[in-house]
Amino acid sequence: MELQAGSGVQEEQSILPAANKKYKDTIFRMLFSDKKNLLSLYNALNGKNYSDCDKLEIVTLENAIYMSMKNDLAFILDLDLFLWEHQSTYNPNIPLRDLMYIAKEYEKYIKEKGISLYSSRQ
Fold first, then answer.
1. Of 3-17, 31-45, 87-101, which range is least confident?
2. What residues does each domain of the chain span?
3. Cβ contacts of residue 24 below 8 Å, gap of 6+?
4. What is the pTM of this model?
5. With 50 as the cut, is the pLDDT of residue 24 above it?
6. pLDDT digits over 51-93, tens only?
7. Separation between Cα atoms, residue 41 and residue 38, nearest integer Å
8. Residues 116/103, Cβ–Cβ less than 8 Å
9. What share of the chain is helix, strand, coil (3-state, %, to 5)?
10. What is d(CA 67, CA 107) in angstroms, rounded to the nearest whole number?
């Protein structure tokens, strides 16, 4: 056992290799890339009772070319964009990453729908 200075918590030193933090992310992405599972999670988290999986549009970023960005899960439901990240460790940059992901998602959506940013109408 080793006492960490300032924490007052004792932790046992591990002889095991460092954990792969990406496996949780991969499982999360795999499980909720299925529309039925995603809709079930959405309903559970939001107290809703949607049943039509066709109302979901999964729009997750997959390694955007020039920024090497990838988010865990993004989808549109009733014209609302949802971005969900599975984060198992503290990251002070998550608000900035979320802003960048959301901007990229909207950019992708605008291109796919043929919407002009400079048009006087939406």
1. 3-17
2. 21-113
3. 86, 88
4. 0.64
5. yes
6. 999 999 988 766 544 445 566 788 889 888 888 877 778 889 8
7. 5
8. no
9. 40, 15, 45
10. 13
